[in-house]
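User: Sequence in, structure out. Go.
Assistant: Echoing your sequence, followed by the structure tokens.
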Amino acid sequence: MFSLFKKKKAYPKFWRDYQDAFKTSSPETIEENTFVVFDTETTGLNLKNDRILSIGALKIKGKTIEVSKVFERYINQSTFNPETVAIHGIIRNDLNPDTTEEAAVVEFLEYIGNSVLVAHHIAFDVGMVNKVLYRMGLPKLKNKTLDTMLLYRASRINSNLIDKERNYSLDELAENLNISLKDRHTATGDAFITAIAFLKIVSRVSNQKNGRLKDLIRLNR
């Protein structure tokens, strides 16, 4: 099913459906857009050699986290790194997962459509998904992206406490924004923490009702 697809006309239906979602332009305002906040737990931090263990995601529309539409997949571990178990807590065959990376990513594409993707240090999470797509012979994700670390830094730009070069951790954001760290280091738990942080940050940097998506993207640097 997941053999290499070298020509555009040979791309599978799930990828064509995903591409078709981008024929519709994103709304201009933050309020009208759908944001998918997500996180991946992985066997390590090497984009080439490590693999995804789980994907957790949820949707935000307007000011509402749609908790009834949570996406959560645990993945069979063809690659296992016991040194990272202390971080994510996922052991080999934990929760009896029967989903492959490829199948999980196919479902993830259907879930996200053309939504704006949000994550903390998003380059890594997007990079892990893109590596799966690469191994499947498919192009990279097409979605607009926002990084809560960069947005948080922008929200504090006028503060004497801000370090413009500092890479703030999700734990630091949660502490500074008074967010509970319950379920930290599960993909869905981290996605939920990130979603709350995102909403708090957006309220600082934009009038959410009339704020424009392009202004958030401009701050995401």
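User: And one key feature?
Assistant: Strands lie at 34-42, 52-61, 64-74, 116-119, 145-147.
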